[in-house]
Amino acid sequence: MIYIGNHLSVSKGFLAMGKQASKLGGDTFAFFTRNPRGGKAKQIDPADLEALHQYLSEHHFGTLVAHAPYTMNLCAAKEEVRSFSLDVLADDLERMQQIHHSYYNFHPGSHVGQGPEKGIALIADALNHTLKPEHRTTVLLETMAGKGSEVGRTFEELKSIIDQVALSDQLGVCFDTCHVWDGGYDIVNHLDQVLEEFDRIIGLDRLLAVHLNDSMNPLGSHKDRHQKIGQGEIGAEALMRVVNHPALQGKPFILETPNDDEGYAREIAQVRAWMEQA
Ligand code: FE
Ligand code: FE
Ligand code: ZN
User: Fold this and answer.
1) Nearest ligand to the C-alpha atom of residue 226
2) Which of 142, 130, 45 is nearest to 88 (CA)?
3) Structure pTM?
4) How would DSSP label each residue in 119-148?
């Protein structure tokens, strides 16, 4: 079995997210640590967070997946963007000390013309400056579609970041199905081979979470436009094989599809039906 859920808003508090996840049929969820477009993080109410922790264990939730804001670019060319991003990362990891049972996922970054090698070095450098042995979350690098100058489209690039980080035990990868497909990995016809390649290059023990999305665009398009499950170029059958793949069991799967609550409830039910069919 896998855990399934979607992105929820932290604005009504932590316990409210747990309850909302249950209402939609989920047993995990994702949330932005602050406004996805940046901005200051809200002060955490310790009683509310403690109530969530209690709720998660009572309802047998899987690991949650916190998401860094999109404005964070650890390999920006502009020094001020990079230092802002470093502050956000350090502040978020400090907040994650309070939030239990949650990974912290981020987009590696865009090298904006500096080249992937320089980008990789800057990202690793940022992680080396920020990660501390006492951090309890695992930081996930998200597989990217390769839009613009995004770093992390290939498994090799992600591996190269991990290799340059001293505290690499604290790193993992979030496998986004839309992004890997748009990045050129054929999970429709060759899922086993793609995961074998992931294993050979990065190691499947690093694959800790999945973003379950269909894609509006064909293989290798480098577009990053998510589609509802079964309505895109990846399709229901292929996504069902992802959900039921032996290498991915026990992991949190997060839907990032263009949906309202009703749509998410329907997709979560669909994924559960697939799990029972396996
Ligand atoms: Fe993401
Ligand atoms: Fe994603
Ligand atoms: Zn995306």
Assistant:
1) 3
2) 130
3) 0.97
4) HHHHHHHHHHHH--TT--S-EEEEP----T
Report the C-alpha gap between 114 and 102 in whole angstroms: 33
Helix, strand, or coil (residue 33): coil
- Tell me which architecture the domain covering 3-277 has in CATH: Alpha-Beta Barrel (3.20)
Q: Which two tokens stand for residue 253?
A: 């799967």
* Ligand 3 centroid distance, CA of 225 (Å): 6
Tell me the ligand closest to 175's alpha carbon.
Answer: 2
Residues with CB under 5 A from ligand 1 (ion): 142
> What pLDDT, in 10s, does the model give residues 169-183?
999 999 999 999 999
* Ion ligand 3 residue ranges (Cβ < 5 Å): 224
How far, in Å, from the CA of 11 to the mean position of ligand 3?
A: 22
Integer Cα distance of 127 and 101 in angstroms: 21
What is the reported pLDDT for 36? 73
How many CB atoms within 10 Å of residue 112? 17
> What span, in angstroms and rounded, lies between the C-alpha atoms of 158 and 101?
24
The rounded Å distance from CA 6 to ligand 1 centre is 12
Residue 273, φ and ψ in degrees, nearest 5: -65, -40
Indicate which ligand has the atom closest to the C-alpha of 72.
1
